[in-house]
Amino acid sequence: MNKAIGIVLIIVGAAMLIWTGFTYTKKEKIIDAGPIQVSADREKTVNWPPYLGGLLVIGGIVVVATSKK
């Protein structure tokens, strides 16, 4: 079980090192006056620091290395 968790940590950490964030589109209302509604698409960005991915990779390696066989 610990070995599987370690492998997942390594995979997620490597993915976080490769992709440092993602962007999504959110529809926001600009004007809402009775029957008249105006909305616009806004791009939102989610970023995480690259060192977080490195820490997950290192943590996964430690978990795999210390897990019992």
TrEMBL record:
It comes from the Bacteria. This is DUF3185 domain-containing protein. The chain crosses the membrane at residues 7-25, 48-66. It comes from Mucilaginibacter rubeus. Keywords: Membrane, Transmembrane, Transmembrane helix.
